[in-house]
Design brief:
about 15% strand, about 35% helix, HIT family, subunit A, globular, 5-stranded antiparallel β-sheet, alpha+beta
């Protein structure tokens, strides 16, 4: 195969990158459907990753603009972990993955796109979801649109 056409990705690639912190900006816009915010709690929220590692990739984010896990108040930390568990349960129920990658990229050298605002990745995984595309073609195929996924996961 010479080409894989995914024209809907052009919208993301060509989109102007916002100034400031998206994790601070998105929740105050009060437009959860457009921003793909799935759940809101007192101290934290869950949002779909618009550049997902895999279908169903959710991020759990504190409202507080903070870079380090160890600097979160105990109440925020507890609610953040509860949200990670809740997101994992929702993904298990709705998408039936075979496993999960759950983690934090702490610092830009570790891969954090927004290193100054802590967030936890919840990434569903399926047997065989790593195939020739990412290994040989350096390309990941996501099989579901964000709109479809949001509708499925939003409670």
């Amino acid at each position: 195969m010479d080409k894989l056409w995914a024209p809907w990705r052009a919208e993301y690639i060509g989109k102007e990158k916002p100034d400031g912190c998206i994790f601070c900006q998105k929740p105050v816009q009060n437009n959860d459907c457009v921003n793909y915010i799935l759940l809101r709690k007192k101290y934290v929220y869950a949002i779909l990753n618009i550049y997902p590692y895999n279908n169903g990739h959710i991020m759990a984010v504190p409202y507080q603009h903070i870079a380090e896990l160890g600097k979160l108040d105990k109440d925020v930390l507890h609610e953040l972990m509860d949200l990670v568990i809740e997101c994992q349960q929702i993904l298990q129920e709705k998408l039936q993955p075979h496993g999960f990658n759950i983690g934090i990229n702490s610092g830009s050298v570790a891969g954090a796109g927004f290193a100054q605002h802590l967030h936890i990745h919840i990434v569903p995984r399926w047997n065989g979801d790593t195939n020739f595309m990412p290994v040989l073609g350096s390309t990941k195929v996501i099989s579901q649109s964000l709109e479809q996924l949001y509708s499925l996961l939003k409670l």
